[in-house]
Amino acid sequence: MMGCDVWYDFKKENGFGNVEFIVGDKWAVVVFSGQYNKEGRPLWRVAWAEEMGLSAAKEDQQQRAIAVVQRYMKGSKDYVVSRAESYEVHQRCAAQAIKGRVLLAGDALHSNNPIGGLGLTTGVLDAFVYGNVLLRVIKGGEPPSLLSQAASSRRDAWLNISNPESVAQLKRIQGKSVAEGDGEKASSESTSDFMETVKGLIKEDFMEGVEGIAGKGGA
Predict the structure, then answer these.
(1) CB atoms < 10 A from the CB of 24, how many?
(2) Nearest-angstrom CA–CA distance, 9 and 79
(3) Does the global pTM surpass 0.90?
(4) FRET label pair with 79: which of 14, 56, 184, 215, CA 20 to 30 Å apart?
């Protein structure tokens, strides 16, 4: 994938909201960063798929981004690409989430494509569950075995919820059909409910962590 930061007014020129998913062969994710420069120009982050094996030289990545990002602009082509970086997308999970005194969370535990922000959100929920459980073990005197239960719960949450749903969401934005087992909630062909789908997944993952482990002792 290619990710780049672009100084451009997608709201004014394209009528975009803060988050836009462009669906199809030339799919992309376009997100407003919330930042403005001194001239009042907004900074957006744009990501799309590109071929494997292309040059990783910084100058070449920058030139590719400058050329490609124009296809997502409907109005003025007055823009500046301030950063461009290509990277490989992975769907991976560590074999175990805890070993000895080490707990894995976030990208150290799992990695998936960025569509919908499910990797980031799952990592935040990892931290919520672990923080709660650590307090209960260290200050509350509950058994250390609770840490293993929490680690197993978070790994299972990624394998059973975040991973299949992120795969399904990537297929949807590519305009591909979603096969059974790719994520039940991502089976809709409509793009209008994309964010509602993601919100539902976040709630489901959160409740699994809370009810399964962390909720027993309160926040």
Answers:
(1) 9
(2) 8
(3) no
(4) 56
pLDDT digits (tens, 9 = 90+) for 25-61: 788 999 999 999 999 999 999 999 898 889 999 999 9
Task: Determine how many CB atoms are found less than 10 A away from the CB of residue 118.
Answer: 25
**Distance from C-alpha of 65 to C-alpha of 127, rounded to nearest angstrom:** 34
Rg (CA), the chain: 20
Contact 47, 114 (CB under 8 A): yes
- What are phi and psi for residue 35, nearest 5 degrees? -105, 150
Query: Phi/psi zone of residue 28: left (φ > 0), alpha (ψ -120 to 50 degrees), beta?
Result: beta
